[in-house]
Design goal:
Elements: H1 2-18, H2 31-43, H3 49-67, H4 70-77, H5 83-102, H6 115-135, H7 158-181, H8 188-207, E1 214-215, E2 220-226, H9 231-234, H10 240-252, E3 259-267, H11 275-288, E4 291-300, E5 305-314, E6 318-321, H12 335-338, E7 362-364, E8 367-373, H13 380-386, E9 392-397, H14 407-422, E10 426-430, E11 436-438, E12 444-447, E13 454-460, E14 463-464, H15 468-472, H16 475-499, H17 501-505
Helix pairs in contact: 1-2, 1-3, 2-7, 3-5, 4-5, 5-6, 6-7, 6-16, 7-8, 7-14
């Protein structure tokens, strides 16, 4: 009977983690995140560090296997791995993420088991858990609780504390739900928490109307080119001329826009190998007063390194090299041991170098543009740092790797959050969707349908200034959460010492 209860308990945790992604794009049922977190928090009471870790591990595995299921598409369809092995690889990666997620929750065994400590401690531990996933082994800052509030009143807090602050508030909501379920709705701590959350929600609504940045300059005309090139044709030498011809053809009617955007690695070869084509595009851009921003793989002759880059061609010139590379997609960890082992470790362009951290911004029509290539846009602090002096943010991507999964929709939601945090409009160009224009309040003003070859014309108003988050990044909420945990652990250790019978004997 006891074993059956344990199995049942683990299954509840697994399902609890599995419902978490329902609160994020494309489902956007934000209460699902609160309910999911409450299930985990409820399981951590009066447990040892070992049981807290294992409970969190089971929950985390459910969260990632449901929310990052698109990894299977990338590994199987584009990594050339047979389905059984792709399932195993996806499961192992999700287990690895769950291990990172679960580690901080061992702290729960050390904090006092009183309501106030619990209500503050668990949201703080959750934030630390998410923050750890931002940097361990390049990081996987995906599936944060705060993204569930991209379109709720609480998004007014995003320019102040970023997505991690919204995650902390989500944790408070989960603790309130757990207290209500436990029948403690009339307790003083529950009433105080309810009042606190109400104040946060209402003030978030009013913060939505605060303009942290202001318009600068004349609106810019923008054209996004979405070519929708199949991934298995992308790097085929036989398709190269056809791809270049398609890019030029889709762009012909739009020369004259201030900014024309081709997606990540749109040009399927090095610029040195197609000098005539690059010269033609430069001449067309110069003649029309346009700047073409294209994703392309570049080669640094001096350093003998390849980069995933964005080139500015035409009236304004420049180059940005990606600084956060995707493991196995753009570089191979332990390359000497893994390279050549299986096809997945030999994907095209998987030997790229990291760009410098202090690259100049693009300057177009007197506006400075910060750039984030694909995966970079999911790092809150990176985008905040790079866009401090910018008036626009550009991100290009190739979400073909996601196939027909929920990955591109999750990715676009994170773009919206970056716009909210920094209160700067974002121009997003992708190979097969979702391409679109996001305003400084995180709203998608125009977008193209997924899996279509098409163009989008629009107008973007540049913004100058900084939000509090642009200045500080996530550090205030991370530091607050860390201090809370340290304080509660010290308090818990002292309480345990005083309650230890051996202490009385002394």
């Amino acid at each position: 009977m006891r074993l059956n209860n344990k199995i049942q308990h683990r299954c509840i945790l697994l399902v609890g983690g599995g419902i978490f992604p329902l609160g994020l794009a494309p489902f956007d049922v934000w209460p699902a995140v609160i309910i999911s977190m409450a299930i985990l928090f409820q399981s951590l009471k009066q447990t040892s560090a070992k049981h807290a870790f294992f409970n969190s591990l089971v929950y985390g595995f459910g969260l990632f296997i449901a929310g990052a299921s698109w990894l299977y598409v990338s590994i199987h369809e584009y990594g050339f791995i047979p389905a059984p092995l792709a399932i195993l690889a996806t499961a192992l990666f999700c287990l690895f993420l769950a291990l990172i997620f679960a580690a901080p929750f061992m702290i729960t065994a050390l904090i006092p088991q009183n309501p106030l400590s619990w209500m503050l401690g668990l949201p703080a531990i959750w934030v630390i858990s998410e923050w750890m996933r931002t940097w361990i082994l390049t990081g996987f800052p995906w599936l944060y609780a705060g993204y569930s509030h991209t379109s709720t009143w609480l998004n007014g807090w995003a320019p102040i504390g970023g997505v991690l602050l919204l995650s902390f508030i989500s944790g408070l909501g989960a603790m309130l739900l757990a207290s209500i379920v436990n029948g403690r709705i009339r307790s003083r701590s529950t009433q105080s928490l309810m009042t606190t959350i109400a104040i946060l929600v209402v003030s978030g609504y009013f913060f939505q109307n605060v303009e942290w940045t202001e318009n600068t300059g004349e609106p810019l005309t923008v054209t996004l080119i979405q070519p929708n090139i199949p991934q298995n044709e992308k790097w085929s030498p036989g398709k190269q001329k056809l791809i270049l011809k398609q890019l030029a053809s889709q762009t012909n009617a739009h020369w004259g826009s201030d900014i024309i955007v081709w997606p990540e690695a749109a040009v399927p070869t090095l610029p040195q190998r197609i000098p005539n084509f690059m010269s033609q595009m430069t001449d067309r851009a110069n003649d029309s007063g346009s700047t073409l921003l294209t994703g392309i793989i570049t080669y640094d002759i001096n350093q003998e390194k390849y980069h995933n880059s964005v080139l500015a061609i035409g009236e304004n010139r420049g180059q940005y090299n990606k600084t956060r590379l995707v493991p196995f997609g753009e570089y191979v960890p332990l390359e000497s041991a893994l390279r050549g082992l299986i096809k997945f470790f030999d994907l095209p362009m998987s030997s790229l170098a990291i760009g410098a951290s202090d690259q100049p911004l693009f300057s177009i029509k007197d506006q400075l543009i910060a750039t984030a290539i694909c995966y970079e846009v999911v790092y809150p602090n990176l985008v905040a740092r790079n866009s401090k002096e910018a008036s626009l943010i550009l991100t290009v991507s190739n979400d073909t790797w996601f196939g027909n999964s929920i990955g591109p929709l999750q990715h676009m939601q994170m773009v919206q959050m970056r716009a909210l945090e920094n209160e700067k409009p974002i121009i997003r160009g992708t190979n097969n969707g979702i391409s679109g224009l996001v305003d400084h309040k995180g709203k998608i003003r125009r977008r193209l349908d997924q899996h279509s070859s098409s163009e989008l014309n629009g107008v973007v108003q540049a913004r100058e200034g900084r939000t509090p988050f642009s200045t500080t990044g996530s550090w205030p909420i991370v530091l607050l959460s860390t201090l809370l945990c340290v304080w509660l652990m010290i308090k818990g250790i002292k309480t345990n010492v005083l309650e230890d019978p051996r202490h009385d004997n002394k």
